[in-house]
Amino acid sequence: MSAPPDHDQQEPEAPRDLVGVGIGPANLSLAALAHPLAELDTVFYERRPGFDWHPGLLIEGATVQVPFLADLVTLADPGSPWSFLNYLRTHDRLFPFYFAERFHIQRTEYEAYCRWVAEKLPALRFGHQVDSVRWNPERNLFEVDFTQLDDQGEATALGRTYTRNVVLGVGTEPHVPEPLKPLVEAPGVPVIHATDYLRERDRLLAAEHVTVVGAGQSGAEVFLDLLRHRPAGREKLHWLGRTEAFAPMEYSKLGLEHFTPDYTRYFHALNEPTRDRLVAAQWQLHKGIGADTIAAIHDELYRRTLDGGWPDTVLTPGVHVRTAGRLATTKVELHLEHSEQGTRSRLTTDAVVLATGYHERSLDHVLAGLDPYMRRDNRERPRVDDKFRMILDPSVTDSGCHVYVQNAELHTHGVGAPDLGLAAWRSATILNTLTGKEPYPLPTRTAFTTFGLEPSPQIPAARQEKTPTPLTPLVDAR
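Above: the chain sequence. Below: its structure as tokens.
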């Protein structure tokens, strides 16, 4: 691996139309909708050996927070063979699902559906780690370098492919607050992020006292699961959150219209300071707790009062962890501060689960070769246009080549960016823009709410684009 491969023997005879980096639900949606478009030559790379989606949080009974219609394809193409309903039909489960009357499916079922799609799409390449994306000005193409990995993640070969377009769907990574990073990284210390919950669950259940930090959906699900498996009267659970309440997620019908293309277009047209203020203020739209989960927690706590007394649990919102450290070898001490009272205290616990959310995964390493061409905002974030394309130097985009982003545009497109319900619409927008056609006609209006006094015309993506140069015939790269 010390020397690069002979690229003259490995590069394709013709460039691909699209290379995807990462295979999570966003790029899986794009791959599924791109599959029937015979004129497109696409490939999607993922470093993991197979598809998985938050495996540590596939807790029994936990549901996806969007309806089953928010699958990979339905909201752009209800007749697609990759729909959730077709997955059920293929597995002879349509009638059981019909009688179950479930609008929100279990997380394990959604993950199984995505794996079914991933196992059948031919354009997916698991065990391929993308190392860099660069612009080649001599060929007017992007060059993508990757490493093939075996099942243990060890490198086996290097490769390179050329493409007119790149789509980044690398997802998010666990966020660990700075005061707790040393404890999470230390071997043997029982402080984990919720993304590893199921893997560490037996160890947590054996701990005498457990603290859950984080007042969102993941924190609620972890707390509920621990509560259900601890003996009555000896629960010994703390649940702490920074927000001023264990608040329900906004789920009113008009409130949900913030997850429509109409709102996404409105948000994108706002200035940068306003967008940043709104993202912070709208946390309850996407970081609150499902009402059913809150009810289940209260029901479980109430059940434990039937014999008199109260469960040995403490639920405290409005608290943040200032610092943390180890006591002896088996315990953790958290230094807490209450934001409203201005008071401080210490909590000794045997294990900590950090349900502290996820941050967009940094693209800097992969895109280092594109840095001279990238346009950034006042906070050094990539600028992204309304078609989900990074704004690059005209020397790149005038060639008809673009870098698209998926679930990395919260700062430009708002709270709908990470939402599964907009995945199919975003994928269809990308494909309509990329082809210069309209393989997926999109609605011109999606909300009863009119966002703003002067709404921009609701025009499908492809109709706003000038017709690009027709695609040239392609030769299989392999």
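Residues 1-11, 459-478 have pLDDT under 50 and may be disordered.
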